[in-house]
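To illustrate the input format used throughout this study, we show a single complete record. The first block contains the structure-token representation of the backbone; no residue identities are included at this stage. The design step must infer an amino acid for every position from geometry alone.
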């Protein structure tokens, strides 16, 4: 749990049918390129939201709902696609998923209006939901058991790099060209990753069919039911406003020249927060880590809200808050996964798959609420998210017996 583990144990093979002769870690790097493309696709809208809103003649709050559409579609489609595509051979599945992503991003780049953009973001979510969990499963099957943790770290490292680099690079591309060209470059990246997967991976069979009913049966476990809502509301509080990062920074007086490196600071904070959380959970347990994390998240968002309301246009303060925001948001996943695994240890892949869906549901909830509150000024959604983070802290205390 040393990298951003959005899909951590979803990526574990569910059957020996996916086992293959070890090919070494080298083949997993092309899968990391794929997850980098997926992560960039999911996050990149944050880097050019104002330009996209102006081009499509909608408000920034409305434009941000494209991120909501992606997150909702991912949350709903992830367990369904895992069931429907379980028996499909892995290489054509992964290549097909990246092809869908490429076409969806090309469609987004060419979208004549907001309705078409929303439809293409749903299509992109389908490709992402099909690719990321299966990429991890394939990576684990390509190496010896002793190398599986490193293989998973390589693949999920693509998502880490997308958080740290994909959004800032998208912001740069949008400034040098425009947002449509930036999405066109993401489409090209997806196509290149698909070609690499096709060329580098061996033929691998599909896995066993796991009925959707079995995947959802874990929701009957008291511990799972108690822990899972914290994923939804924790991500709504922490990550839901990230699509509006540029308008929020501008509300704090940030010039366009500083946006790129401030977005990079958020990504660097996210990587550091996740690394620190993974290590600390092993050492201190998930409850202590979450107590510290949600306290930090509530304090960071409250400071953001105060700065926006008071007109505190201090670039060093904005830089500090951006890095703290990333760190305090992405500390959550390792601890939540450990708690869910402890609640249903014999159904690890299933419960962490549910956690992944809940994570995107939380992003959708936060993005939708943020878009609705943004017209009132940046302080309003930031303050609401700070209150929600405090509520998460109280909910954690109430459910702390589920460790």
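Output of the design step:
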């Amino acid at each position: 749990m040393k990298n951003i583990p959005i899909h951590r144990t979803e990526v574990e093979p569910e059957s020996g049918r996916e086992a293959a002769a070890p090919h070494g870690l080298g083949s997993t790097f092309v899968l990391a390129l794929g997850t980098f493309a997926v992560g960039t696709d999911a996050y990149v809208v944050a880097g050019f939201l104002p330009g996209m809103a102006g081009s499509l003649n909608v408000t920034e709050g409305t434009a941000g709902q494209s991120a909501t559409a992606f997150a909702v579609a991912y949350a709903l489609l992830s367990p369904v696609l895992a069931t429907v595509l379980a028996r499909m051979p892995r290489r054509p599945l992964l290549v097909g998923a990246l092809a869908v992503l490429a076409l969806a991003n090309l469609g987004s780049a060419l979208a004549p209006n907001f309705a078409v953009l929303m439809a293409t973001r749903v299509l992109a979510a389908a490709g992402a939901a099909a690719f990321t969990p299966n990429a991890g499963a394939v990576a684990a099957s390509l190496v010896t058991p002793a190398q599986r943790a490193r293989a998973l770290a390589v693949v999920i490292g693509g998502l880490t790099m997308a958080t740290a680099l994909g959004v800032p690079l998208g912001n740069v591309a949008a400034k040098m060209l425009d947002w449509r060209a930036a999405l066109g470059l993401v489409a090209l990246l997806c196509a290149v990753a698909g070609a690499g997967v096709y060329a580098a991976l061996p033929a691998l069979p599909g896995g066993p069919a796991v009925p959707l009913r079995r995947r959802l049966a874990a929701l009957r476990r008291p511990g799972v039911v108690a822990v899972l809502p914290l994923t939804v509301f924790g991500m709504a509080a922490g990550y839901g406003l990230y699509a509006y990062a540029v308008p929020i920074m501008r509300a704090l007086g940030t010039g366009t020249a500083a946006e790129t490196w401030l977005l990079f600071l958020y990504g660097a904070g996210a990587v550091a927060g996740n690394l620190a959380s993974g290590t600390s959970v092993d050492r201190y347990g998930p409850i202590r880590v979450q107590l510290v994390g949600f306290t930090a998240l509530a304090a960071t968002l409250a400071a953001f809200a105060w700065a926006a309301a008071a007109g505190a246009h201090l670039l060093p303060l904005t830089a500090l808050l951006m890095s703290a925001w990333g760190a305090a948001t992405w500390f959550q996943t390792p601890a939540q996964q450990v708690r869910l695994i402890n609640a249903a240890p014999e159904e690890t892949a299933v419960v962490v798959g549910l956690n992944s869906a809940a994570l995107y549901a939380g992003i959708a909830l936060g993005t939708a609420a943020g878009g609705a509150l943004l017209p009132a000024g940046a302080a309003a959604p930031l303050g609401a998210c700070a209150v929600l983070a405090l509520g998460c802290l109280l909910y954690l205390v109430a459910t702390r017996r589920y460790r």
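Structural context for interpreting the output: The two ends are 17 Å apart (CA to CA). The CA atoms of residues 264 and 382 lie 20 Å apart.
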